[in-house]
Amino acid sequence: MKDKFDRTIDYLRISLTDRCNLRCIFCMPDEGVPLLPHEEILRIEEICAIVREMALMGLKKVRLTGGEPLLRKGILDLVQCLRDIPQLEEVTITTNGTMLKDLAEPLKLAGIRRINIGLPSLDPINYKLITRRGDINKALEGLQKAMEVGFHPIKINTVLLKGWNEDPIPFLKLITEFPVEVRFIEYMPLGRLLGKDSFLSAHEFLEKISSLTEFKETSSTPGNGPAQKSFQLPNAKGSFSLIAAFSDHFCPKCNRLRLTSDGEILPCLFSHQGVNLKSALRPYLDSSALRLKILEALSLKPKEKDLSFSTQRFMAQIGG
């Protein structure tokens, strides 16, 4: 698929649910979000129908997100359905890891090969404060299980927050001991949960690491994500990367669309408008109408993100 700026769009992020078992301070308010009615949520077979149509149009990669995607009933059936689409090269998942101890092996058997785990802190107290209710031991058990069953690569997503996780040492120790990639990601101020004083730029954080240790820049591991810089420490089993999701301008290389759990295609995380697909799926699938709606959403993809954009939706409702 090509947008009107001649960018190849071959990657779709799918939010499976607006529900989550955590309440991370950068993602969702403490009281949670108003949950969508069950009938508004896309069914598993509807998600598969959308991806099949988009795969015929050039889609190559899908990432399953949430909320917390492992809370979605039928997720293993969905993975198997997606893996049966011949044009689709890769199905990956982003999770907070707290349910991976039990689900890592079934996910691997269903066809997931690569996985991202959100881990905002390695300090038990800070982890609980940032997630408001999380137990870091469950997340670390999930990470351990993911390594045991053979996911590769395993990426750790750490949203940078000034005053919360500014110390890179615990994460540098993690990549010294384990073959994971820690991705330090700038906070995206959707939903205005945190003030500007919580923002920590990727450049600032790299300077902190520079004051502590030597490293060399390497080519990034294969993936679906935005432009990023990857680095290797001497004799480390893993690596780290920085994603300047807010301050950098990687829009010219953007290759993605987003599908919300209630069926709306968003051309950009900062989109003013999207296209809801449900009328092409219910009461029955209309493939021609579905394709037209997908093309409509593609036509709305902006040349670059609008940093003045304000939304009432939180990251958990969009899918990151």
Would you give an account of this structure?
The chain has 320 residues and is α/β, with parallel strands linked by helices. It has a domain at 11-157 and 251-318: Aldolase class I (TIM Barrel, Alpha-Beta Barrel). Helix content is 28%, strand content 17%. The chain contains nine helices and twelve strands. It has helices spanning 44-56, 75-83, 100-110, 124-131, 136-149, 169-177, 202-210, 287-299, 315-318, and strands at residues 11-15, 61-65, 90-95, 115-118, 154-160, 181-186, 216-218, 229-232, 239-243, 256-259, 264-266, 275-276. Strands 7-8-9-6-5-4-3-2-1-10-11-12 form a twelve-stranded mixed β-sheet. The radius of gyration is 19 Å and the shape is globular. The two termini are 22 Å apart. 42% of the residues are buried. The mean pLDDT is 91.
Descriptive keywords:
320 residues; alpha/beta; TIM Barrel; twelve-stranded mixed sheet; 9 helices; 12 strands; 17% strand; globular
